[in-house]
Design a protein that fits this description.
The protein is about 20% helix and about 10% strand. The protein is built from two helices and two strands. A two-stranded antiparallel ribbon has the order 1-2. Helix 1 packs across helix 2. It starts with about 30 loop residues before the first strand and ends with a strand.
């Protein structure tokens, strides 16, 4: 190594305050259960069963917008994704 190629500590960037760890901008994968709609069910009844609150029906509706167009129109035998309680 030629003398002019030598580097000193003063030439190096200071990373002493850098903390280790990982982060990601990737979306978190949602965990679902599958529920088969029974006769007499409504999203409110299903929400009460899974979340102890009928008012949580929107969580189920939002998770199933690919198969539900109207929250009042579900039918027996239909498979719904139930988001994890949280």
């Amino acid at each position: 190594m030629a003398p002019e190629d030598k580097t000193t500590d003063e030439d190096m960037p200071d990373f002493s305050d850098v903390k280790s760890g990982a982060s990601s901008t990737a979306p978190v994968e949602q965990v679902y259960q599958t529920y088969v709609v029974a006769k007499g069910d409504s999203l409110s009844k299903i929400a009460k069963r899974f979340y102890d609150s009928a008012g949580e029906w929107r969580r189920i509706f939002e998770a199933n917008k690919d198969v539900l167009k109207d929250p009042d129109k579900i039918f027996p035998g239909q498979k719904l994704k139930i988001p994890e309680k949280g």
